[in-house]
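My current task is to audit a protein record that another person submitted. Thanks in advance; the entry in question is below:
***
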Amino acid sequence: MRKLIMISALAAAAVAEEGFVPAQPIHIEPLAGIDVAPGAVFADTVILKLTVDEEGRVEDAEVWSSSGDEAIDAAGLASARKCLFKPATQDGEPVVSYYQIYYRLSAYRTREYAGAEEKAGTAEKAPTPEEDDGGRD
């Protein structure tokens, strides 16, 4: 089983006032604390809204769009609270700002994993390269 954890982040200030510089990430904490069942195939994303204080610390984090899985949402919130930013500034002075962060957890089967399941007698036969059309019909 191979796990792929992707983290994407974007500044929430789409339309900024003149003299405003959005917060810049210094450290984005990876998503941790999620148990992935063997053989699981899924992709879930949680979108969080962070309030970043004048010192660049996460003052508050809230779920903006749920992944649909409480464990992923909770892990996202816990990880987001450990992030660190260069604070936003307005005319050169640090200010409180908002930041949007995405945590995406993906789990999928690889050919090697599917082969191991087959040997254990728990999975269907993985397609050979000749049989696998890559999803094209």
Summary: The CA atoms of residues 32 and 75 lie 6 Å apart. The first strand starts at residue 2 and ends at 11. The first helix runs from residue 70 to 80. Confidence is low (pLDDT under 50) at residues 1-15.
